[in-house]
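Schema walk-through. Below, the input block comes first and the output block second. Nothing else is stored per chain. Lengths vary across the set, and this one has 72 residues.
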Amino acid sequence: KFEVTILGCGSATPTLRRNATAQYVNVRERYFLIDCAEGTQLQLRRYKARTQRINAVFISHLHGDHYAAWNQ
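--- output ---
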């Protein structure tokens, strides 16, 4: 099983209908989060993705908003 859920694709210009970039990936029931910019936690709730099941978070580039929420 391989599934990708696009949580945001707004890059540097998110809008009310398009959040900043983030993807939730399911590979054989192992879950990965690629980037986690502003609004990602709300999108995870919207798609009923359980944050407890995330096995790893991958950061493609460093901005404070991509990792600060997960370090609290």
